[in-house]
Amino acid sequence: MSFAKIYTRGLLGLHAPLIEVEVHVSQGLPSLTIVGLPEAAVRESKDRVRSAIINSGFQFPTKRLTINLAPADLPKDGSRLDLPIALGILIASGQIPENITDNLEFIGELALDGQLRPITGILSIAIACQQLGHQLILPEQNAEQASQLPHFEVFAAKHLKDVCDHLSNQQPIQQYQASHSAAPDQYKFDLADVKGQLRPRRALEIAAAGGHSLLFKGPPGTGKTLLASRLASILPPLDSQENLEVASIYSVSNTSHPFGQRPFRAPHHTASAIALVGGGSHPKPGEITLAHLGVLFLDELPEFDRKVLEVLRQPLESKEIVISRASRQITFPANFQLIAAMNPCPCGYAFNQDIRCQCSADAIKRYQNRISGPLLDRIDLHLDVPPLQAHELQDTAPVESSQTVRERVIQAYNFQIHRQQCLNHALSPKQLEQFAPLDMQAQKIMEMAQQRLNLSARAYHRVLRVARSIADLSQHSEIQSQHLTEALSYRAQQG
Asked: In the chain, pLDDT over 90 holds for what percent of residues?
C-alpha cells in the first residue's frame, strides 16, 4: 500500500472543520512535500515527524513522500497535524495495517522522541468529532478536557508508539474514564463581604435577574469594584449546553477557566479594540467573547480609549461579533453582561459638594463626555454609589449572602423563561407590548418621564425591561406604578 488517508481537525474560530491527511509514497529521490496551504508550523512538522518515527522504532521511508491536506483551500496552522501525518506515513509505507483508521480521528503535536504534546481548542474539536460519530485519539493532557463532553469516546495516548500498538491491536488503548468532579459552585467572592450600600446591592440583583447592563458612578473607595466583582456569584447556574459553549471558547483561546462557573472578565483600561473584540491574522476570541454568558467589567470607564468603547455598541445589541478578514468572516458569540464603574470627575471627589474636589466645571464635563451618549443609552441601570459612613463600616450584623440573593434571582429567571423563553433584556418592542403591559397610572407616569428625562425610543424600551425585571423579582405578573418608578430612578442620574 503506497497510499493512506487519515482524518483530523483544523480550527477556524470556534469551529473545527474536518481535514483529510492524504499520504502518497512513490518511487524517486527521497523527499517530503506538504501541499494544501500549510503554514510555517505545519511545514516544520516534517522534521518533527521524521525524528518521532525513527525514535519510536520505525523506519522513515527513503522514497518520495507527498502529503496533501484537504480541503486544499483552507489554511492549516498549528502543530496539531503532527500525529495524523506520522500515522499516514507509517500506513502508506506498510508498517501499520491499513483500513483500521475508519471512524477514528487523530490529533496531537509530536516531540522529537515521539511523545505526544497537548494542543489548544480540544473541546471544539471533540464537539465536531462527536457530531460526525467518530472516536478521537488525542494527547493524554487533553483527555480530561475532552471528556467533559457527555457520551463521547476519548482515547488518550502518551506516545506515538502507543497509538501504533493500538492500531495494530498489539496493545489497545482503553477508553479514558473521566474523574467527574461536581461542577464547582463556589465563587471566590461573596455578596456578604459588602457592607451597607443597600441601593447598589438592589441594582445588582435587578441586573442579575434580567441580564441588564449596569453603570456605577461614585468617588474612590465606595465599593464599586467590590460590588461588580460579586455579580457572577448571584447569576443563575449555567446549564450543560452553556457550560460546553463557555469551555470551548476558553479551550480555543488557551486560557484556564473553572468548569461550571460563569466567566468574569475585567480588562485593563489600556486594552486595545482588538483585545476587546478579538482578531489577529488567525482570529482569536477577545475579552467580550471570553465574557460570553458571564460578566464583562470595565473599571474606570472614561479612562478607556473612546474608539475602544465605541466597538462595544454593536455587540451589546446583537450579542455577537463578526470579525472580517480578507479571506474569511468569523462570528464569535458575545452574549455578555456589561458592568462599568467610573468616578464622577478626574480627581474622583465631585460628589455631593465634596470639598476635596478641585476640578473645574469644564474639566468635570470633559471627563464625563469621554463616554458617548449612544453608549450610555445602551446601559440599562445608572447608579450613584455614595461614600460609606463610619457606622455602616462598623456594623457587624450579618448581611445577605450570594446564595440567598441567587435563589431570588433564579426564581425571577424561571418566571421569565416560562413566560417568554428569554431574559427580559432580550425582549423586543413587540414582546414588550405583550409581556410588559402598563396600567393607567403607570402609563401617566411614563408619559411624564418621557417629557422630563427626554428618553429616546431605546431608553423607553429599556426602562420597561428593567420594570419588568423588578416586577418579576417581587413575583407580580403585571408592572405596577412602584415597579416603574423604581426603574425610572435608575435612569434619572443620566441627566
From this structure: 63
